[in-house]
TrEMBL record:
Amino acids binding L-glutamate: 263-264, 321, 327, 339, 360
Keywords: ATP-binding, Cytoplasm, Ligase, Magnesium, Metal-binding, Nucleotide-binding, Phosphoprotein
This protein's name: Glutamine synthetase
GO biological process: glutamine biosynthetic process; nitrogen utilization
Modified residues (O-AMP-tyrosine): 402
Binding site for ATP: 206, 222-224, 270-272, 339, 353
Molecular function GO terms recorded: ATP binding; glutamine synthetase activity; metal ion binding
Pfam families tied to this protein: Gln-synt_C (PF00120), Gln-synt_N (PF03951)
Organism: Sulfoacidibacillus ferrooxidans
PROSITE patterns registered for this protein in UniProt: GLNA_1, GLNA_ATP, GS_BETA_GRASP, GS_CATALYTIC
GO cellular component: cytoplasm; membrane
NCBIfam families (alphabetical): GlnA (TIGR00653)
Reaction catalysed by this enzyme: L-glutamate + NH4(+) + ATP = L-glutamine + ADP + phosphate + H(+)
SUPFAM superfamilies associated with the record: Glutamine synthetase, N-terminal domain, Glutamine synthetase/guanido kinase
Length: 474
């Protein structure tokens, strides 16, 4: 859209406010709201100033002036504001007009440009599947004298004996949420309303259903798109999920592991590369109908996975999900249809254009711009260096990995077990991310120190409630 078309939209839809939005390093959106009467073509083309020192991971106070400039094609009429409001996703610029190197959206755009320059293909398509929980009550605290968390859901299996005056049963059993009909599925109407809002926002939705875990776990799938566009969609998707849940008096979270002893929430990411209209991942008759390019892409993903997870599973909570026994994709192998493998090759109803790989380890605490860009670069490194996943010991493994013998299991490598470990892996292995100037050393160093300072160290120095159960009487 052009600036004049945005102004026409504002007039035609009686828009009263315009929201300019940016994303910080962890992946949270921030916004500035401007009365529509103050919006003109110059503002839409040139952007507005903001304080970069107040955004996590951006700038120090001594060099805080920055500019956010809207991507006019991102216009979305907000469904959750009291007055008509138009939301615009923005890119971040230096005061001199140069793009800001730590803007996650810029990194995603540079990854797409690098693909085109590489000669491998013209577009990378990503289809993330985000899982989340919808709770009825969430309480938590972490302070000097104590810490706790408590989540609750009317459908949860732990509430079968709860005296609510009228407990109607039909609770979701532990690991029994995939996918019973109503009334056991108590959140069908809520998910349907989320789907309608997603569709009203222009997002193509493919399906929705209850997920495996008790306590309100859900999944809503939308159609794949190019890298930056789909990262934009992820943030809008999360915004809509959270706000529809709020309408229902509930709260949504994309934490990977908010419930102990049941399945966690992942973000399985389907990926493929095209050259124009030609799909590059299909070769009929080969393993999983995968081309050599696709297998080398898989090789790059698995070879760089320990470092890649610093962006794809970037929270301490991520590694509460990545443990054996809960369909967790902790095994650094690829396989046809095997959901315990880090990379799955979907084989049901696959056509040349739908041939793709599915990286199952990521979760939705990832900043989608950074995670998708890093995945693409890892895959391209695999293609460029012809990393054969079989020759490197990454499979294929088409057996249930949890039922293998001890000797067979010893041959299978696992993902690192903590955020600190993957940050260390990123320190040791990040040259593939520097290709084409997509990431730079300043960003990598900033990310590692930011994560250690704001997440790893604060958690490491605090007593955990379960430690009292284990150690208080020693």
């Amino acid at each position: 859209m052009t600036a004049s078309e945005i102004l026409t939209l504002i007039q035609d839809k009686n828009i009263k406010m315009v929201d300019f939005r940016i994303v910080d390093l962890p992946g949270r959106q921030h916004h500035v709201t401007i009365p529509a009467a103050e919006i003109d073509e110059d503002m839409l083309n040139d952007g507005i100033a903001f304080d970069g020192s107040s955004i996590q991971g951006f700038r120090g106070i001594e060099e805080s002036d920055m500019v956010m400039r809207p991507d006019l094609d991102s216009a979305y009429i907000d469904a959750f504001t009291a007055v008509p409001t138009l939301d615009l996703v923005c890119d971040v610029y230096e005061p001199n007009g140069a793009r800001y190197n730590r803007d996650p959206r810029f990194i995603a755009q540079k990854a797409e440009a690098f693909l085109q320059k590489s000669g491998v293909g013209t577009a990378a398509y990503f289809g993330p599947e985000l899982e989340f929980f919808v709770f009825d009550d969430v309480r938590f605290a972490s302070s000097q004298e104590g810490a706790f968390y408590h989540v609750d859901s009317e459908e949860a299996n732990w509430n079968t004996g709860k005296d609510t005056g009228s407990n109607l049963g039909y609770k979701v059993k532990n690991k029994g949420g995939y996918f019973p009909v109503q009334p056991t599925d108590s959140q069908h109407d809520l998910r349907t309303e989320i789907v309608l809002e997603l569709m009203n926002a222009g997002i193509r939705v493919e399906r929705h259903h209850h997920e495996v875990a008790s306590g309100g776990q859900a999944e809503i799938n939308f159609r794949f798109d190019t890298l930056t566009n789909v990262a934009d969609t992820v943030l809008l998707y999360k915004y809509i999920v959270r706000n529809v849940s709020k309408r229902y008096g509930k709260v949504a979270t994309f934490m990977p592991k908010p419930v102990f002893g049941d399945n966690g929430s992942g973000m399985h990411v389907h990926q493929s590369i095209f050259a124009g209209d030609k799909p590059l991942f299909f070769e009929e008759g080969s393993y999983g109908n995968m081309s050599k390019i696709a297998l080398h892409y898989i090789g790059g993903i698995l070879h760089h996975a320990p470092a890649l997870l610093a962006f794809a599973t970037p929270s301490t909570n991520s590694f509460k999900r990545l443990v054996p026994g809960f369909e967790a994709p902790v095994n650094l192998v690829f396989s046809k249809g095997n959901r315990s493998a880090a990379v799955r090759v979907p084989i049901a109803a696959v056509t040349p254009k739908s041939a793709r790989i599915e990286f199952r380890t990521p979760d939705a605490t990832a900043n989608p711009y950074l995670a998708f860009a890093a995945m693409l670069l890892a895959g391209l490194d695999g293609i460029r260096n012809e990393i054969d996943p079989t020759a490197h010991g990454y499979g294929p493994v088409d057996k249930n990995i949890y039922e293998l013998s001890s000797k067979e299991k010893q041959k299978i490598r696992s993902v690192p077990g903590s955020l600190e470990e993957v940050l260390g892996a990123l320190e040791a292995d990040h040259e593939f991310l520097l290709e084409g100037g997509v990431f730079d050393r300043d960003f990598i160093e900033t990310w590692i120190e930011f994560k250690r300072a704001t997440e790893v160290r604060p958690l490491a120095i605090r007593p955990h409630p379960h430690e009292f159960q284990m150690y208080f009487d020693l």
